[in-house]
Structure formats: C-alpha cells, structure tokens
Design brief:
The chain has one domain (about 15-165). Helix content is about 75%, strand content about 0%. The chain is built from four helices and no strands.
Length: about 180
C-alpha cells in the first residue's frame, strides 16, 4: 500500500510482451511467405518445383497458425483473468484469433489437399494445360481461396497485434483501489 491507502500500480509481468511477440511473429511469418512465394516460383528450376517448396512452407505455416492462434487465445485468457484486456478489444481479439485459426484449418485440411489432388490428376503436364481447361480453372479457383485464407490470417494476426499494443489495464483510482 502506498501513501493515502492507494495501492501502487502492479507491473504487468511478461504476458503482454509474450502476446505481442507471438502475434508479431505470426503476422511476420505469414507476410514473409506471402512476399517470398513469388520469388520461389520465379527462381525454381520449374514451376512445379517451386510449387512443391511453397506447398511445404504453406503446410508448415498452416500448422504454425493453428499453434499461434491457440497460444494467443490462452495468453488472452490469462491476461483477461489478470485484469487486463477488458471490453471490446478483448472480444474483438478473440474473434480475430478464432478467424485466423479457422482460415488455417480450411487451408490445411480442405483447400490444399484438393489442390494437390487436382494437380496429381492432371499429371506432369499440368503446367502445359491451357488456361481454359476445367482442371486448370478449378485449380485456379482453389489457389485464389488459398490466397484469401492467407490474407485473412495476415490481417487477423496484425490486428491482434495492434489490439495488444492498445490494450491497457484500467487505471487504478482511489475509488477502485
């Protein structure tokens, strides 16, 4: 207790910093992949080789996205229990993290396996198929959905980070102390 019966403000501890670190790392990893995927495709010996590398990286990012979302949800729960993250910012962060997890799940378990199956059914000549070919068009639609899930995760992670920056514990007043 400080002078006048008002308790001294508590230090927030490591959880807010850990939350920001993980949210920033998640957003950064996804953004790095989004910008690097084109480089991989341009520099690979063949487009198919670049696709194999990008798929492996995307699968790892999908799994990592699920882990990041789970860890951030846990941290958010612990932070809320400790008196931080109240009101609208907490509710929005919960929704953003859930949205990011759902997007990762859809990418990993629904979209990517279907893309792989389409590519396999076309065989080694997939890249030589005309743009109007039904297999090529279906793969293009799936690729667009895959890109959309990546954008959703980037926005979710970046917004969760921004909310973490703005989250403040309510100021202690003599009435609430």
């Amino acid at each position: 207790m400080g002078a006048g019966g008002v308790s001294a403000p508590r230090r927030p501890g490591p959880l807010p910093g850990l939350y920001l670190f993980l949210a920033g790392l998640w957003a950064g990893a996804l953004s790095f992949f989004a910008f690097g995927a084109g480089i991989v495709l341009r520099t690979a010996p063949t487009r198919a080789d670049g696709g194999v590398v990008n798929r492996a990286l995307l699968d790892a990012l999908d799994v990592a996205s699920l882990a990041f979302a789970a860890a951030l949800l846990l941290l958010l729960s612990l932070l809320a229990r400790g008196g931080g993250w109240v009101g609208t910012s907490r509710a929005l962060a919960l929704r953003l993290l859930a949205l990011g997890a759902v997007a990762a799940f859809v990418s990993l378990y629904l979209i990517t396996p279907e893309m792989v199956a389409l590519r396999s059914s076309a065989g080694p000549l997939f890249d030589s198929l005309p743009a109007a070919d039904p297999l090529r068009r279906a793969w293009g639609r799936l690729h667009a959905l895959s890109s959309l899930t990546l954008v959703v995760r980037i926005v979710s992670a970046a917004a969760a980070f921004a909310l973490g920056l703005g989250a403040r514990r309510p100021a202690a007043t003599p009435d609430t102390a």
